[in-house]
Amino acid sequence: MNPPDRPALCAAPAAAGRMYGLDLLRILAIALVVGVHLSAQITESAAAGTPAAAFGCVLGVFCSACINLFVLLSSYFLCQSRFSFLHWFRLWAQVLVYGFVIVTFITLRLFSPFSGDPAAIPYDAFWESFAALFPLSSSQYWFFNVYTVFFFLSPFLAKLARALTQKQHFLLVLVFLWFGSFGTEFAQWFDKDAFRFGMGYRVLWFIALFFCGAYLRFYGSAEPSRRKFLAGAGGYVLAMSCLSLWALWLRGTPSGPSATPPPTPTCTTTSPSP
């Protein structure tokens, strides 16, 4: 039985048709992933203190929400969906196929007569790519590994979310956001990832995002609104602009509360990818 302040669970907020807004968010998430990788390439090739390095840092900050957006969208549907092993198997098959194509391309490239000096072949990188044929056996596809655990936990998380009242659910989201987002950012001055949320790349943070997505599904409005869109887009640009200024300041500050304050994850030279 639902709590008194919990709306009755329904099949979908827009059963009459496809939710094109969510499709646009998926496209945006893909574009942000591309932006994250592009920013990593820019920061690797640009000299420190140059406009190019600053642009790469800012681009990385603005695109840093890509993983969160993917997981939020998944949570939005998983909290109301029946668990299906077939869904995960299809995803595993897609990762396997992509891994096979990538490994085949690398193999042909490395061992072709046009590859140059055989002594320069990066064997470590090759075998790491070969491990992509077995997605769960390595961290080659870290997102798939973490998502697998998250997916199999989702029916239990959904059951817990349905048992909470709206107030309890809201307080739980606040706790997760404080320690997993705001608290983690502030704690970087003293101890990187002090609360062990994995800087957004661990199962615990995916669980936090699940409850955020479930709250939006249960209590948010699915009706399109230009005012909501402008408010959300404006809030995102404002928040990312502030984080960009903070990130640029951290990169240009030789000292701080610690001798070498850790950089924000979006401005490092490497960035995980889904």
Index terms:
274 residues; mainly alpha; 9 helices; 63% helix; 0% strand; disordered C terminus
Textual characterization of the structure:
The longest helix is centred in the last third of the chain and has 27 residues, at 226-252. With 274 residues, the protein is mainly alpha-helical. The chain has helices at 20-45, 51-62, 66-78, 85-110, 123-130, 142-163, 166-187, 203-219, 226-252. Helix 1 (20-45) runs antiparallel to helix 2 (51-62), helix 2 (51-62) packs across helix 9 (226-252) and helix 6 (142-163) crosses helix 8. It has nine helices and no strands. The two termini are 38 Å apart.
Q: Say how many strands there are.
A: 0
Instruction: Report the principal-axis shape.
Output: globular
In DSSP terms (H or I, runs of 4 or more residues), the helix count works out at: 9
Regions with little confidence, pLDDT below 50 for 5+ residues: 10-16, 254-274
N-to-C CA distance: 38 Å
Proportion of helical residues: 55-70%
Spatial extent as radius of gyration: 21 Å
* Classification by helices and strands: mainly alpha
How does the major sheet shape up?
none
Give average pLDDT, whole number. Answer: 75
Could you spell the SSE succession in H and E letters?
HHHHHHHHH
Q: How much of the residues is beta strand, in percent?
A: under 5%
